[in-house]
Amino acid sequence: MHRFSIWPIALLLLGSTAPALAVAPEAWEQWDRSDPKATLEVEHAAWSDLLGRYVRPHRDGVNRMAYGEFTREDRAALASYLEQLSGTCVTCLRKPEQRAFWINLYNALTIDVILDHYPVSTIRDIDISPRLFSQGPWGKKLLRIEGIEVSLDDIEHRILRPLWHDPRTHYAVNCASIGCPNLIPEAFTAENMERLLDAGARAYVNHPRGARVEGGDLVVSSIYDWFAVDFGGSDAGVIRHLKRYADPELSRKLAGIDAIDGDDYDWSLNDVPR
Questions:
Q1: 211-214 and 217-221 as β-strands: parallel, antiparallel, unpaired?
Q2: Which residues contact 72 (CB under 8 A, 6 or more apart)?
């Protein structure tokens, strides 16, 4: 039995310690509609501006968010951006526009939730999800899109993961934690999507919190455990994924490795150090 197989059952029984770990991707058919001939483009400049000013690269390779520096005016700008997204006809968009829409919405909602409860030491302390044993904000309906309430779980596990079937989704959506792939300082768009997804994958895979070889043992981020199904469903699948984005140094260390020996994740808030 491979090492990932018992996790969904155990987590369902014991209570989740990450966003909907026991939830397999299941497409929400409502959002599997688009207009391939549409010319409408969603404006993300306000979100890009906020990211550019408050995302701070740190010397340890982890991007931090300066939550404590947000001004009243910028909180209002974030609220206005979310209101703009709420009023968007998503099913009227082309598929590439939809993908950027959902990624940016997920990240903007996450930052908004953190700011509403700041200061906190971890997003898991924001216990507003309705499910029994749940931690964090992921299950709470936070916004209406086309009159339908959506949660962070809905966006990630019922829309982005099942409708695009791309493991790089995990490098795009950010859970406001040190262990998470970096929140990048620009908004996703249909035009920059592939570039940002590939850059996010390379940055995370080649950072120690993504993958590292210690004494011949491979230790990976728990993301590859929790969402193993998105990475081939096995150790071999995860390792193939790592090798695809690994820089030469990591590639050399991965040569001959055929099993994962452990995983970890840092849930500390990705706040700017004080």
A1: antiparallel
A2: none
Cβ neighbors of 165 (< 8 A, separation 6 or more) are none
The single-letter code of the amino acid at 168 is: R
Query: Are 140 and 129 a contacting pair, CB within 8 Å?
Result: yes
pLDDT digits 0-9 by tens, 64-74: 999 999 999 99
Phi-psi region of 104 (alpha: psi -120 to 50; beta: other; left: phi over 0): alpha
User: Which residue, 165, 197, 194, 167, is CA-closest to 182?
Assistant: 197
Can you list the positions of beta strands (E) in the chain?
A: 55-57, 63-65, 141-145, 148-151, 211-214, 217-221, 262-264
Predicted TM-score (pTM) of this structure: 0.92
pLDDT 10s digits, 222-266: 999 999 999 999 999 999 999 999 999 999 999 999 999 999 999
Which amino acid would we find at residue 260? I
Residue 17's contacts (CB-CB under 8 Å, 6 or more residues apart) are 11, 124, 135, 267
